């Protein structure tokens, strides 16, 4: 029976750790008013966080597409943090901040 060298074991463990950590996604909610919209980048800012939309982004309430977003609108955004960026999974328009406390 052959033995695995300690250096090989460490290398394999490091490779596994890096593989699991790279591209990790963390879901979270961001609530607030849209401060700015960048049509070219398909991104908007809430609470000083830049959030990008994708083809998989869902829109709720009065929103049907990215172009429906308006500066000053109060939104709740489910975001995924991936590779140092925030991506909108779901964008929900709220008529006012009180709706967001449900």
Automatic annotation (TrEMBL):
Family annotation (InterPro entries): DUF5666
Keyword vocabulary terms for this entry: Signal
Domain DUF5666, first and last residues per copy: 31-92
Signal peptide (UniProt feature, chain positions): 1-27
One Pfam short name: DUF5666
Name of the protein this chain belongs to: DUF5666 domain-containing protein
């Amino acid at each position: 029976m052959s033995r695995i060298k300690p250096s090989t074991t460490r290398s394999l463990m490091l490779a596994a750790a890096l593989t699991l950590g790279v591209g990790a996604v963390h879901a979270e909610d961001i609530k607030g008013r849209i401060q700015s919209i960048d049509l070219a980048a398909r991104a908007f800012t809430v609470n000083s966080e830049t959030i990008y939309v994708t083809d998989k982004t869902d829109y709720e309430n009065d929103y049907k597409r990215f172009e429906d977003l308006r500066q000053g609108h109060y939104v709740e955004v489910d975001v995924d943090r991936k590779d140092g960026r925030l991506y909108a999974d779901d964008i929900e328009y709220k008529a006012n901040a009180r709706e967001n406390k449900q």
